[in-house]
């Protein structure tokens, strides 16, 4: 349920903290907009359904904080957070996602996000997080932060991640080599390294572990 183009919210007045909601599910965008709109100091000024629309919408509507889902078409929330951070706009980003994976948290912070919460966060806590982020603070789901510390940083190199992404979709060593323009021996070395780092028994298990931890 993507949304083509940004949608300005009717009747929006120049008051409070201006919010942009980016989520590919229209029902989720609408529910979040309704809940946050009940707060006197928060104002949803725009909604988009793809990651690639975020920067343009933030610029057009003067958003102060962008609430970003991770799993979106045409540029996910992590890419959108990085694009916002590089845009020079004053808009800060808060990842609000179903996928509470430690690896996603570290990748979000590396991308320049100012916060990371899961979608079952109570509305009052979400509103408070937005205020804190707008004031310059960082907000992270405490349970996820603890899991991230215990898990440690992503051990995979960029090449190992590329190889595992192709392995996750079912490609064998020959297919991976062709897709990445590498030799089959080189691919096998990357797979062996990734399997060892994820403490897996085979490439399929390594890919699943990496996905589950948010490392891909």
Cα-atom radius of gyration: 19 Å
State the secondary-structure class: alpha/beta
Low-confidence sequence ranges? 8-14
Number of helices: 10
Q: What does the main sheet amount to?
A: 7 strands, mixed
Query: Helix fraction?
Result: 40-55%
How much β-strand is present in the residues? 5-15%
In N-to-C order, the SSE pattern is EEHEHEHEHEHEHHHHH
Kindly state the number of beta strands: 7
Shape, please?
Answer: elongated
Gist?
It is built from 10 helices and 7 strands.
Care to describe what's here?
This protein has 216 residues and is α/β, with parallel strands linked by helices. Helices cover 49% and strands 14% of the residues. It has ten helices and seven strands. Strands 1-3-2-4-5-6-7 form a seven-stranded mixed sheet, with helices on both faces. 44% of the residues are buried.
Keywords for this structure?
about 220 residues; alpha/beta; seven-stranded mixed β-sheet; 10 helices; 7 strands; about 50% helix; elongated
């Amino acid at each position: 349920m993507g949304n083509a183009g940004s949608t300005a919210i009717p009747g929006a007045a120049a008051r409070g903290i201006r919010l942009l909601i980016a989520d590919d599910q229209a029902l989720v965008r609408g529910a979040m907009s309704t809940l946050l709109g009940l707060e006197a100091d928060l104002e949803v000024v725009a909604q988009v359904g793809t990651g690639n629309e975020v920067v343009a919408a933030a610029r057009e509507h003067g958003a102060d904080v962008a609430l970003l889902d991770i799993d979106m078409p045409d540029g996910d929330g992590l890419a959108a957070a990085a694009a916002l951070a590089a845009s020079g706009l004053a808009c800060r980003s808060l990842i609000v996602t179903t996928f509470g994976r430690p690896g996603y948290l570290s990748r979000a912070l590396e991308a320049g996000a100012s916060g990371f919460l899961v979608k079952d966060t109570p509305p009052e806590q979400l509103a408070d997080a937005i205020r804190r982020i707008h004031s310059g603070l960082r907000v992270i789901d405490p349970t996820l932060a603890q899991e991230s510390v215990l898990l440690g940083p992503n051990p995979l190199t960029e090449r190992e991640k590329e190889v595992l992404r192709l392995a996750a979709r079912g490609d064998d060593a020959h297919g991976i080599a062709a897709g990445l323009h590498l030799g089959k021996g080189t691919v096998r070395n990357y797979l062996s390294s990734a399997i060892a780092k994820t403490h897996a028994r085979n490439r399929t298990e390594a890919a699943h572990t990496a996905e589950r931890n948010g490392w891909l």
